[in-house]
Amino acid sequence: MKKIIYLVLGFFLAIFTGFTPFEKLTGRIYPEKTEENLTNLKTEDMKLGAFSISLSVADIRASKQFYENLGFKVLGGKLEDNYLIMKNENAIIGLFQGMFDNNILTFNPGWDENGQNIDSFDDIRKIQKNLQLAGISIDKKVDPESTGPASFTIKDPDGNLILIDQHR
Prior knowledge:
Layout: H1 2-16, H2 21-26, H3 35-40, E1 50-57, H4 60-69, E2 73-78, E3 83-88, E4 91-97, E5 104-108, H5 124-133, E6 150-155, E7 161-166
Parallel strand pairs: 1-4, 5-7
Antiparallel strand pairs: 1-5, 2-3, 3-4, 6-7
């Protein structure tokens, strides 16, 4: 009986002192668990905005024709500026010739999938702060005191580039 009481007391003591077996087993380092961090660290609620894949293409005209044959229509951009945004239902792709080396996953806070402004969105500075609190490394950070358009990039565990690009 004493063993059960000690086990239960130990369990509650571990919970109240902040012991997390996952952290001990994995060796991962997480941000300090302050009340502010726990309040702000709600990444499941983040609004990243419209999603698209930005493709690095060798010949934008050939790529445009190919994606038009798949049913995509030009939504924005300019062929003479070597970039187009194309859409087929909810699928959005960006074609970019000579602008970057690899394909990029892109999120646009403040836009819907038609490139239209939406009223309710998370500002890029809030997204950046939440990702930093979650332990994600940010490339070329946005000044947290700034306002308006800004962008930053992160990489997923496999090195895929993710662009968070706010236009307003």
